[in-house]
Amino acid sequence: MVVRVQPRQLAFALPHAESLTRDNFLEGPANEAGLGLIDAWPEWPNRVMLLVGPEGCGKSHLAAIWAEQAGARSISAHALTAAAVPGALATGALVVEDLRSGDFDERALFHLMNLAREDEAFVLITARESPSAFEVDLRDLRSRLRAVPAVTLLPPDDQLFRALIVKSCADRQLTIDETVVSYLATRIERSYAAVRQTVELLDTEALRLGRPVTRALAAELLRNA
Q1: Domain 158-224 grouped into CATH 3.40.50.10750
Q2: 128-165, pLDDT tens digit by residue?
Q3: What is the CATH number of domain 26-152?
Q4: Which long-range contacts (CB under 8 A, 24 or more apart) does 135-142 make?
Q5: Per-residue pLDDT tens over the stretch 77-126
Q6: Hey, where are the domains in the chain?
Q7: What is the pTM of this model?
Q8: In sequence order, what are the residues at sequence separation of 6 or more whose Cβ sits closer than 8 angstroms to the Cβ of residue 60?
């Protein structure tokens, strides 16, 4: 007798497309101030603005919407150097992504802020926490950062949280029903990062096991997580 063994499906880390257009931005009370900042451009209160919020809260999405409107280039704060500043600001608008304490060139950022003022250019800086709390050695930069107006994105309310789950699954082309959304919404941490991590886990394990994403699978995975 020949016994046929069902091969175990391997999960591959395939890239998934996350749309960063205005049409795909999920609006809610938690991010209305951030969206208002983008819509108010170029009538900003300052040439340099800060967009502050936790990981995955939509800062990069809002920055991408603004970059499209303003013709802005984008650079990681970690990669910014003094020599790169003029070229980065050549279009008159720049996004500086993910500014973190102790992980950027202070003189480069100070040069950027000075040049933006001289050239009447716009700069949008994203950060997970307000740079006013950073340990900054360069005194002039420290005072500049404290003077930059900041717009803060808040934790998601229930409606936005559920919509984030649906969108994260859609970005990965996962088909889910309301029972899965309701189960996840009441059992995972109410944060943007938790949604991203949970949906990634569901996607990976559903592919590996060759199973659809159901409430039963979600319960099994969260119980063992």
Answers
A1: no
A2: 999 988 999 999 999 999 999 999 999 888 999 999 99
A3: 3.40.50.300
A4: 135/101, 135/102, 136/106, 137/106, 138/106, 138/107, 138/110, 140/110, 141/106, 141/107, 141/109, 141/110, 141/113
A5: 999 999 999 999 999 999 999 999 999 999 999 999 999 999 999 999 99
A6: 26-152, 158-224
A7: 0.80
A8: 20, 97, 126
